[in-house]
Specification:
This protein is an alpha+beta fold and 199 residues long. It is 29% helix and 25% strand. The protein starts with a strand and ends with a helix.
Length: 199
């Protein structure tokens, strides 16, 4: 696969972001963030994501477990499932509320998911529980990644990230996606399971 672009963020939130401390794919894998990539167009990317989800035992034939997504919700309401709109609307509302305070919000999921990026170049910040820091990962079309349950991450719905489209494969239906926000994370059983496995 193509080299991954990931690096530690400065511990001081006021410092400029640089890429002087790169992170390799093996390190991300030890934190539960497993990443792969495939060459080709939308169909090839979707099939690769589907294959990975099947290998993980996801019920890919069940309605609501394979969901196209588009982070620019406002412009694409007509093409998205109601459950997806609700999920992203709540997520964006929480993120933007914290951003207005000059803060970022911790997120996590209680349900395993595989995401395949078909267009756009989004980034996500993930927690390194072994180094007590945060890593920024940049994704490109063709990249497929597994979101580990109980792992903290931070998302930004800026114009760059809003251009992202893809396919999400859920271990349970989208209606049971189990999005966790802020204090909900540390009090959820999946968080302790994650910490036990990765620290």
């Amino acid at each position: 696969m193509a080299p991954i672009r990931a690096y530690y963020l400065p511990t001081d939130a006021t410092s400029d972001i640089d890429e002087s401390r790169p992170v390799n794919i093996e390190k991300l894998s030890t934190l539960g963030w497993k990443i792969s990539s495939v060459a080709g167009g939308h169909d090839e990317i979707e099939q690769a994501g589907l294959k990975w989800a099947q290998e993980l035992g996801f019920p890919v034939t069940q309605e609501g477990c394979i969901v196209p997504f588009n982070f620019d919700v406002e412009k694409n309401v007509a093409t998205m499932a109601p459950e997806v709109i609700t999920m992203f609307a709540l997520l964006m509302k929480a993120v933007e509320a914290e951003n207005r305070k000059g803060k970022q919000i911790d997120l996590a999921t209680a349900v395993s998911a595989v995401l395949a990026v078909t267009s756009g170049s989004p980034y996500v910040d993930v927690e390194d529980v072994t180094a007590v820091g945060w890593i920024r990962i940049h994704f490109n079309p063709g990249m497929i990644f597994c979101v580990p349950t109980g792992a903290k991450y931070r998302a930004d719905f800026n114009e760059e990230n809003k251009r992202t489209k893809g396919i999400a494969f859920f271990k349970e239906t989208i209606s049971n996606h189990g999005m966790l926000v802020k204090d909900e994370i540390d009090n959820h059983p999946t968080r302790q399971v994650y910490l036990n496995a990765h620290t």
